[in-house]
Amino acid sequence: MAHIIVVGNEKGGSGKSTTSMHVATALLRLGKRVGALDLDLRQRSFGRYLENRRAFVARSGHNLPMPEYVDLSSSQKTDTQDGERLSAAMEHLDSATDFIVIDCPGSHTKLSQMAHASASTLITPLNDSFIDFDLLARTDPDSGKVLGPSIYAEMVWAARQSRAQAGLKPIDWIVLRNRLGAQAMNNKRKVGAALEELSRRIGFRVAPGFSERVIFRELFPKGLTLLDLKETGEGQMNMSNIAARQELRDLIRELRLPDVLTES
Question: Which PANTHER family does the record match to this protein (predicted)?
Answer without folding.
Answer: COBQ_COBB_MIND_PARA NUCLEOTIDE BINDING DOMAIN-CONTAINING PROTEIN (PTHR13696:SF96), P-LOOP CONTAINING NUCLEOSIDE TRIPHOSPHATE HYDROLASE (PTHR13696)
